[in-house]
Design goal:
Helices cover 76% and strands 1% of the residues. It has 342 residues and is an all-alpha fold. The protein folds into two domains: 217 residues, no CATH class; 73 residues, no CATH class. α5 packs antiparallel against α11 and α9 crosses α11. The relative contact order is 0.15.
Length: 342
């Protein structure tokens, strides 16, 4: 006897793909609207440089979160040392610009190559470790670079950090007196990293990374090169972080060892993916926007109340609430509601 039509429809792959296509179509519409709104902000008369600087900060941390999401969200490797690659990107472009006049458009690739080399060494030493041992090992690498940056004062500025020479508004030297150009640059980074994430998720490499993340033994039994897969994910993430570090450096015009390699910065660049949803293309974008909004809102409230430190407390409590009530991130919460509504 033939199965009822309702049962055939429930198991029909085409029927299951239709809601997914609808969700993707809506997501692209929302994304297009968000891009248009951000791109239009500098032209609006009521938007000042402070608000644009906040937008730039959000875009930079979204890009950094997207880079970390590749290795942690898709690959399942909890790296706490990604500040190493951010710092290498910042210091490489800054030193080459200040000492040799090399523009960031060229210096960025030197930073990327340095990050590749460090990631290769880091991966060779740590990727056979698991869980907390891998995380602690990555912190050790980042802290080692922190000490090197403090020691070589003539090169890096030591504890005082490295400040870029300002030559005025220049596209070639990626410098501006206003944050407007960095709004558009940050937007380009976020869009590019979004498509890179989608490519990874849909590629053979992405499939292997998720298999290793879910069960290394089963992945190895299926013929997946576990170490090779982990290393490729780490290398890609390192380069993405380092390149985004150049935008960070040109926007803030300065860097110091604690900001570059410190644990607090490493945690900060993880939050967009953790809040928005690990292993998804949209997660770091949504999470980064929420993170910076909460940060600025609590900072504004603390200033108005005149109570120092309350912004950090409230910010931490709000983030804790997000993690507790949405353990799979905001995108995971939306996905669960979408499934419940069908």
């Amino acid at each position: 006897m033939d199965a009822p039509a309702t049962e055939r429809g429930a198991s029909d792959p085409a029927a299951e793909r239709s809601p997914r296509r609808d969700r993707e179509r809506r997501a692209f519409i929302y994304g297009f609207v968000a891009i248009a709104v951000v791109a239009a902000l500098p032209t609006l008369p009521f938007v000042n440089d402070y608000l644009l600087a906040v937008v730039v900060r959000a875009l930079i941390f979204i890009a950094l979160g997207q880079a970390w999401n590749v290795v942690a969200g898709i690959g399942g490797l909890l790296s706490l040392g990604h500040g190493a690659f951010l710092g290498l990107g910042c210091y490489a472009t800054g030193i080459l610009f200040n000492d040799y006049g090399l523009p960031p458009w060229l210096g960025v690739w030197v930073g990327a190559l340095l990050s590749l080399a460090v990631a290769l060494v880091m991966g060779t030493m740590t990727l056979r470790m698991r869980g907390v041992f891998f995380a602690l090992a990555t912190i050790a690498v980042s802290l080692a670079l922190d000490q090197l940056a403090r020691h070589y004062v003539d090169l890096t500025g030591g504890d005082n950090g490295l400040a870029l020479k300002f030559l005025g508004d220049s596209l070639w030297f990626m410098q501006s007196r206003t944050p407007t150009p960095f709004v558009y640059a940050g937007l380009v980074f976020v869009i590019a990293y979004y498509w890179i994430t989608r490519w990874v998720l849909g590629s053979r490499l992405g499939l292997q990374m998720r298999a290793v993340r879910d069960d290394e033994v089963a992945a190895a039994a299926a013929g997946v090169g576990v170490f090779r897969t982990k290393l490729l994910g780490l290398l890609l993430s390192a380069v993405m972080t380092s390149v985004a570090g150049t935008l960070y450096m040109q926007s803030y015009q300065a860097i110091d060892p604690e900001t570059a390699f410190g644990l607090s910065q490493a945690i900060q660049l993880q939050l967009p993916a953790l809040i928005g949803g690990l292993g998804t293309a949209w997660g770091p974008i949504v999470g980064g926007a929420v993170m910076i909004f909460l940060s600025e809102a609590t900072n504004w409230g603390s200033t108005k109340l005149g109570v120092a430190g309350i912004d950090i407390l409230v910010y931490g409590l709000l983030l804790l609430a997000v993690v507790m009530y949405a353990p799979k991130g905001i995108m995971g919460l939306f996905a669960a509601r979408a499934r419940g509504g069908r």
